[in-house]
Amino acid sequence: EAGVVQSPRYKIIEKKQPVAFWCNPISGHNTLYWYRQNLGQGPELLIRYENEEAVDDSQLPKDRFSAERLKGVDSTLKIQPAELGDSAVYLCASSSRGLGTGELFFGEGSRLTVL
Amino acid sequence: AQSVTQLGSHVSVSEGALVLLRCNYSSSVPPYLFWYVQYPNQGLQLLLKYTSAATLVKGINGFEAEFKKSETSFHLTKPSAHMSDAAEYFCAVLDTGNQFYFGTGTSLTVIP
Q1: pLDDT, tens digit, for every residue of A16-55?
Q2: What are phi and psi of B63, to 5 degrees?
Q3: Minimal Cβ distance to B43: which of A56, A97, A106
Q4: Under a CB-based contact definition with an 8 Å cutoff, are residues B65 and B76 in contact?
Q5: Cis omega before residue B40 (within 30°)?
Q6: Could you say which of A40, A91, A97 has the minimum Cβ distance to residue B43?
């Protein structure tokens, strides 16, 4: 079974430029999460989707960040314009509420460097 | 809201020695508890989970953790450290609202 797939793995941009990250969750997982992980820290939730509905986006900086999950499968996280402080690893994770205990399955992450 | 505390941001052990990584959570109701491991430039991988069954949970790579309700702890142990265990370890709690809370992580160094 394929795991959570993210792209790109690495992205280097100049400040004020836009950037987008894509995530394909594990098939059948209805819950999708975007986390931001700064160097030496734990993941911090940006947004959580249940199917196509964003049920928790309280930590998403909505002035520059946006996300969508069309059709309740793939998701895209966008930053426009990027700032120096956005440099981090952006992790996507998925889980299934109907099976098991809902543990998270993570992708390998997208490392963003803003110059 | 929940909080997860990992004591010791960096832990060093000799190869073959006992590994002990500490995790305490804040909750009056036993939640679901997890330990994840992260190798450099990779995502987080599940090591083990507590789901209110046995209090001693065995995971992959010889790791285990014991849930102690009275101490609100879920410490991770491994009897004998291996060089390949060097990584970042995260304790996490899943509350009844399907919200995950992560600790700040513990970086494990294994000295040959």
Answers
A1: 999 999 999 999 899 999 999 998 889 999 999 999 999 9
A2: -85, 150
A3: A106
A4: yes
A5: no
A6: A91
